[in-house]
Each structure stands twice: as C-alpha cells, then as structure tokens.
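Protocol step 4 of 5: obtain the predicted structure for the target chain.
Materials: sequence only (see below). No template structures provided, no constraints applied. The aim of this step is simply to have a reference model before the mutagenesis design in step 5. Sequence pasted as it appears in the construct record:
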Amino acid sequence: MATIEARTDDLTTIEVDAVVNAANERLQHGGGVAAALADAGGPEVQAESDAWVGEHGQVDIGEAAVTTAGNMPADMVVHVVGPRYAGDGEDARKLASSVTAALDAGADRGAASIALPAISAGIFGYPMADATRVIVNACRSWVSAHPDSDLDIVLVGVTDHVTGAFQTALDDDRPI
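Step 4 output (structure tokens):
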C-alpha cells in the first residue's frame, strides 16, 4: 500500500528513488529548487534537461520530463511545471495535474519512493497553505486510483514551516 508522509529534508540529499523538481517550462534550472537540484546533480542534469526540451519542446503543466539525478542519491529527477498563481478557479486543477504527472512518471519508471516539494509555492506565488492542501489531495487521489501501488510519497519541506503546512493538509480530511 502506498504511503504519504511529510518531512523536513533536503531534496538534494534525500534517499529516495525520484525527486521532483518544481521547474519552469524551458527546464532552465536558474533558481530555487531547480538550481539546488541542478547544482547537486552536476552538469548532466541541465544537459539532459536541455536535450529533453530540444527533443520534445517546452514542458507543459500536467506533463513530466525525467532526467537522471547525477551526483544525488536519487536515481532520477522528475521535472514538472506548476502553475503561476492567478487566483482563479484553474489554479488547483493545474497544480493537481502537475502532481499527478510527477507521480505517474516516477511510478512508470519503477520508483518505489518519490519526494515532492511545495510545487508553485515559491516564486510562482501560490499561497503555501493552499498549495500544500492541493498537493496532498492530489497525492491522495493518485493513491486511491492506484490501490496496488507501494509508492512511498514524501512531501518535503525545506523548512519546518513548509513541512508544517504539508502536515496540516495531511491531518485535514476535507477535500479541496
């Protein structure tokens, strides 16, 4: 049975099969989570990202691109693009589709464990409490749709504040 937990950790050193990158459409890893993962993984993460975009074009919301993780303990990086927060009714649907794409991509490539950050809650401006609630509910929906999966899903907060927002969402059973 799949599990979902919240933990304060570092995506660049966490011991999981796949880490999720909150990326931009061009997979240019210049800041935030993306820069940290690219720096820790080494030049091959950016090189493979460039090759992916060269072959497939930009990464759309609800789509995932997968590269190796380079020097990190994980086997792969799953790059997804979350929405830039607009405050409209589409934000939650878009964010949930990015989470689902990440989980699908990791599971399809044999990952037994995957770590996700608070996608869109940084420079994309999604309010932290809302983003973490959407992410948790998307993970729960994915687990419900895959009852035979044993995927361990780790919701990673870089600070205790972020982890607390994930934990609050996990403790709340109300749907979005």
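Step 4 remarks: Residues 3-171 form a domain with the Leucine Aminopeptidase, subunit E; domain 1 fold (CATH 3.40.220.10). The radius of gyration is 15 Å.
Proceed to step 5.
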